[in-house]
Amino acid sequence: MDPDDLTLESAAQDLAIVAVYRQMFAVLGSSAQSVISDPMLVDLADALFAAFSAAGSEGLTMEQMRSACRGFPEPVFTSRVRVLRELGAVQKAFDRPNQDVYRASFTSYVSLLFVRRMLTRGGQLELHRMLSLERLNLDDPAATEDDARESASRLTTAFRLIVTELFMLTSGGTIDSLREKAPLLWNADSLIGEAAAAHDRMLSRWPELTRPSTDLRAAIAAYRDVSTAAAGRLTQAVGATRALDLLPAEAWRTFTRRSSVGALAAPLAGLIFDAPRAWLSAGDLTEAVAQAERPAPQRLRPPRADSDDLADATPADVAPADDREADDLAARAEAVLAGRDAVDMADLIGRSGDWPTARRTLSDLVAAAQHPSLPYDLTWGDGLVVGADGVPSWRGQGRFVRVAVPA
Amino acid sequence: MTHPAEDLLGALSERQRDEVVAAWAAVEYGREPVDEVGFAALRDPALRETLRAVLRRTGRDLVRIAGRRWTSGYDDDVRAELVARGWGLLPEYDRAVLTTILVHSVAIPRSDGHLTDDSWASAVPTTVAELRSHTQLARGKLNDALQRLRSADLIRAARTSSEGASYVPGPQFHRLTPAARRLLQEELVLAAGPGSPLAAAIRHSRGGQQ
Predict the structure, then answer these.
(1) Which of residues A98, A117, A136 is at a domain's end?
(2) Shortest CA gap B117–chain A (Å)
(3) Is residue A327 part of a domain?
(4) For residue A30, what are the domain limits?
(5) SS3 for A114?
(6) A247 shares a domain with A184
(7) How far apart (Å, rounded) are the C-alpha atoms in residues A377 and A341?
């Protein structure tokens, strides 16, 4: 530094800057020299600021501060207040020896808010704001080429840092750390859009700024690439449903609220599910399997009728009825055959016109073929005849045949 | 008529055939995935491959669920072909209702950190009130669609609360193969966050495959 600059005024200016810095980071100080190692200490600062805000211009005495922080252990409270006082986050309202009323520093509280936001949203929100501000700067009619150059340099630095961090996470980090940190860093399309807009604005107003704008463009493109790479590595690693939590809940809510039926239906368009049917419980199935393995108990034949009159009586009673049925079935079968020796079932059913008729014919022919004393046979082959307009729309291939009665 | 896998089963001893058929019936007709403890054909790797081959003959595949449970589902190639021909798809409106239930019961709880295991099962119910008031689904058709989805086991009624009936994804989602589950996840991400880096990565990897 030039010795000429070492005036009392410049020293005072430096001190003022350092004082603001100290206030800003007071909430994170564990002693005047180093940062905290326990998040509880920030919670204590939060409680303290809330109490100061409620107290208004009255300020708080040391006892009131202690009462506001009664949820925290006394030694912690004492050391925190000491640090906050040393760094200027809590100051005496009036600088007099016997005054015990304190007020809190606005700068410290704002920095606490900032710290909290960085915790939940990472640096992305800040980058958004920075972009909005830079955009305003560039649109300002009074802005000069130097302003634009500085603005581009700030944006380039921010993007390069975020790219490096994401790149290190993607290439060398564990999946857990990537999962935790990447969503705070990676690209939302809006961010790239804003950055590109700022870049375009700068280039159109100051076309001679080729170098800074090229740097900025490269940084934005690198950011897009590394974001995609990080997301790709995560989706590959996390499994078949876990990537869902990488989108914020709000994005999902917006999707279901605003989408049309068609857009909602689209994600399931590539999947096939089973048709409804009677599903069984696993317990029932296991039980069925367990029982099937046991040998079935031997069945005993029912005792034969040994009474003579019963044995004599039976055929006499049954025969006439049997004959009547046989005659009836033979008549129907002959009607169907109409003089031929065989008839094609698919053809026959197809010509019947409606299902009830076809059904009756079918049952007659089956009964005739099954009857032991009638000379008919019904055989079914493989395959189906399908006709969308036919009644019924599908028919089995079979033949109804009159067989030669053995002499 | 003979079963398409008759020749595969014919090559086995009687006992092995019984075991394969028992396991086949269990995975095909069981509502929930079955535990391999009860089925020798699921425990034994060689028989399991035979079972897989038997299922393949009818266009199905054996699907492993976390732990030692198994079920069956459409084979990936068969699914792709059925979809290409437009066979067996759910009606559009039913799909929209189902997507909404998946988002409310699975995606949102996941974003909030309430679900951690890698499956489409969820204990967070979606109420009918949510479906009615927070979507653009036509109201008159909603009950019929829910009824159809229920009978297909795609959704299951959760314990009804004071807010009326509510549903969670049904056991049919266990029948999705890993590739089908991944496809569903990707399609949901593409639909809900088309501008997100996840969607970019998905489009990028699909472009690389083609």
Answers:
(1) A117
(2) 8
(3) yes
(4) 3-117
(5) helix
(6) yes
(7) 11
Question: Is A386 touching B (CB cutoff 8 A)?
Answer: no
- Determine whether the interchain pair A270/B107 forms a contact, defined as Cβ–Cβ distance below 8 Å: no
- Domain spans, chain B: 5-82, 92-208
Residues A135, A204 within the same domain: yes
Q: How many domains does the structure of chain A reveal? A: 3
Average pLDDT of span A27-44: 69
Q: Which residues on adjacent β-strands are paired with residue B166?
A: B127
Candidates 1.10.155, 1.10.3720, 1.20.1080, 1.10.10; CATH matching B92-208: 1.10.10
For A:269-328, CB contacts with B below 8 A are: 269-276, 279-282, 285-286, 289-290, 292-293
Task: Please answer yes or no on whether A266 and B187 come within 8 Å at the CB atom.
Answer: yes
Give the end of a domain, one of A63, A86, A117.
A117
Nearest residue in A to B18, CA atom: A293
Q: Determine the Cα–Cα distance for residues B84 and B80; give it in Å rounded to an integer.
A: 6
Q: What percent of chain A is predicted at pLDDT more than 90?
A: 0
Long-range contacts of the stretch B37-45 (C-beta < 8 A, 24+): B37/B68, B38/A282, B38/A286, B38/A289, B38/A290, B39/A286, B39/A289, B41/B16, B42/B70
Query: Which residue has 């009619």 as its token pair?
Result: A141
A149 lies in some domain:
yes
Select the more confidently predicted residue: B47 or B133.
B47
Equal fold, B5-82 vs B92-208: yes
**Cα of A2 to nearest chain B Cα, Å:** 50
Q: What is the per-residue pLDDT across A83-108, written as a single tens digit (0 to 9) for each?
A: 888 878 888 877 777 778 888 888 88
Q: Is B184 on the interface with A (CB under 8 A)?
A: yes
Q: What is the CB-side half-sphere exposure of residue A172 using CA atoms within 13 A?
A: 4
Q: List all residues of chain B from 10 to 69 with a beta carbon under 8 Å from chain A.
A: 18, 22, 25-26, 29-35, 38-39
